[in-house]
Specification:
about 350 residues, alpha/beta, Rossmann fold, Dihydrodipicolinate Reductase, domain 2, seven-stranded parallel beta sheet, globular
Length: about 350
C-alpha cells in the first residue's frame, strides 16, 4: 500500500481523484489539503462520497501531509505548484501535477502562453510529460509528472498514428474540439453560469488557446519535425465529456479501413484506447466516468482529407484518471488499478 496526498483537492479534478482512489486496491488516501475548506469533512463538501471517506481537509501548503505520503497529486491552477512541488521533490517524494506548470520542456513557452514567470524553472528538467501511451518508459523514473491537459490528451491520441507514419501534409492539421462545462472548473465565472451556457454553444480562445503549444510540442516529438496545428475549442452545454474532430490533408490516397487497421495496430496494447468498428463514430456518452479514449476515422476521398474523431471524459482520461494511471506506472502497479470500471452510459 502506498500513501497518497491530494494538494488542492476541493475542485472537480480533486473530487474525481478521491472518487477513483477510494476504490484503488493498492493506494491509501492519506490526506487532502485545500485552499478553501480546511477543517471540513470532505464528504460534507462532496456528499456523493459519504461512506467512502471521512477525511478532514488540511491547511493548504502544510508540508507535513507531503512528508507522510509517498506521492502527491497537485490539483492546482497554473502557477501554484511552485509552492509545494520543489519541497516535495527535495524530500524524495513523487509528484503528479494536474496543472500546466510541468507540461512544457521550455519555460519560455510556458511564460509566453500563460503570461507569467514559471514558478520553479530549476526543477523543470526533472519533469516528464505524463501521456502514458507515448511516455510510459520515461514516466517510471520521473520525479515529477506533468499530467496532460484534456484537449491535448484527446487531440494527441487522435493524431499520433498519422503523424508517426508521416501521413499528413505539413500545416494541414485542424483540431475542432468541444468540452463540457466542468472543464471551466468549479470556481464561479460568468461564462459558466447556467443561463450563459444552457442552450448555447460557443467557441473561445480562438487562435490563442493555451493548450495549443502543449499539443504542438508533443505532436512534433511524435512526427520528428515541427508540427503546427489550428486549434479551436468550444464549450457545449453538458457537464462532462470531450469530442475532438481532427482534420488533415493526406499525402497519399488510402481508404478508411486501411487507416483503421493502422490505428488498431498502433493501439493494440493500450487498454484505455479503443478503436471503433468501421463506420461507427464515438460519442461522449460512451466514455462518461471512465478512463477510455474512443477513436474512429473516415476519409473524404473527394477532398483528400482524413477525419479523426476521439472522445474522452475530460475529468477522467483528461485529468484525474490519467493522473492515477501515471501513479500506477510509477509504482509498478497494473495500469488498470482503480480505473477498471465501465463507463456510465446514462
Amino acid at each position: 500500500m502506498i500513501k497518497v496526498a491530494i494538494i488542492g483537492g476541493t475542485g472537480y479534478t480533486g473530487q474525481e481523484l478521491v472518487r477513483i482512489l477510494c476504490r484503488h486496491p493498492r493506494a491509501k488516501l492519506e490526506g487532502i489539503s485545500a485552499r478553501s475548506g480546511a477543517g471540513q469533512n470532505y464528504a460534507d463538501i462532496y456528499t456523493s462520497l459519504r461512506g467512502f471517506t471521512g477525511i478532514i481537509c488540511e491547511d493548504f501548503g502544510d508540508g507535513e501531509l507531503i512528508q507522510r505520503s509517498d506521492v502527491g497529486f497537485a490539483a492546482l491552477p497554473h502557477g501554484l505548484s511552485g509552492e509545494i512541488v520543489p519541497e516535495a521533490v527535495n524530500r524524495g517524494k513523487r509528484v503528479i501535477d494536474l496543472g500546466a506548470d510541468f507540461r512544457f520542456s521550455d519555460e519560455r513557452v510556458y511564460e509566453e502562453w500563460y503570461g507569467a514567470k514559471h514558478p520553479c524553472p530549476a526543477i523543470l528538467k526533472r519533469a516528464v510529460y505524463g501521456l502514458p501511451e507515448l511516455k510510459r518508459n520515461a514516466i517510471v523514473d520521473a520525479a515529477i509528472v506533468g499530467n496532460p491537459g484534456c484537449y491535448p490528451t484527446c487531440s494527441i491520441l487522435a493524431l499520433t498514428p498519422l503523424l508517426k507514419e508521416d501521413m499528413l501534409e505539413e500545416g494541414s492539421v485542424i483540431i475542432d474540439a468541444k468540452s463540457g462545462i466542468s472543464g471551466e472548473g468549479r470556481s464561479l465565472r460568468l461564462g459558466s453560469h447556467f443561463c450563459e451556457c444552457n442552450e448555447s454553444v460557443k467557441a473561445y480562445s480562438v487562435a490563442g488557446h493555451r493548450h495549443t503549444p502543449e499539443t504542438e510540442e508533443q505532436l512534433s516529438a511524435v512526427a520528428g519535425k515541427k508540427v503546427t496545428v489550428t486549434f479551436t475549442p468550444h464549450l457545449v452545454p453538458m457537464q462532462r465529456g470531450m469530442l475532438v474532430t481532427a482534420y488533415g490533408k493526406l499525402k497519399k490516397g488510402v481508404d478508411a479501413e486501411w487507416l483503421r487497421q493502422l490505428y488498431i495496430g498502433y493501439y493494440q496494447d493500450e487498454y484505455f484506447v479503443r478503436v471503433m468498428k468501421e463506420g461507427v463514430m464515438p460519442t461522449t456518452g460512451q466514455v462518461r466516468g471512465s478512463n477510455f479514449c474512443d477513436i474512429s476515422l473516415a476519409v473524404d476521398q473527394r477532398a483528400g482529407r482524413v477525419i479523426v474523431c476521439s472522445v474522452i471524459d475530460n475529468l477522467v482520461k483528461g485529468a484525474s484518471g490519467q493522473a492515477v494511471q501515471n501513479m500506477n506506472i510509477i509504482f509498478g502497479f497494473d495500469e488498470k488499478d482503480g480505473l477498471d470500471m465501465p463507463p456510465l452510459y446514462l
